[in-house]
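User: Show me a protein chain along with its predicted structure.
Assistant: Here is one chain, sequence first, then structure tokens.
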Amino acid sequence: MKKQLLINDLKFWVDQNVIYCKVFNTFSDCNRPEDLDQIFNEAITKLSEGVHMPMLFNLEALDFNNAVRVFKLLSKNRIIKSLTLSKTFLVNSFKLSVLLKVVSFFCNPAMPDLIFVDTTSAIKFCVEDNQAYNSIS
């Protein structure tokens, strides 16, 4: 594991060429969108060192309603889209996973975000996504 950054209620780190973001249950989106853009720009730029990597958001600590709210906020973020290879979300229930998959499909049908309940599967997808990207470039 490289460096870790704790900014507000978000913990960032890199492992296996994947940027991780753990969202704590105290996270609030009351910040202006520009503030979130700055947080993600700073964290991703520092951790990735200019290399496109997949990003895995861990929303397991959030309750159902907060997870939906945070997912919508993060899945639409233009900075995250521009600085990362892909976005993957880890949630704590199958029911939430299904709902977020539907939301993701309707919000971004060309490239919906991936949502997992199983940590191992989420990490495996991110690592394989990064390997596939690097084998092409």
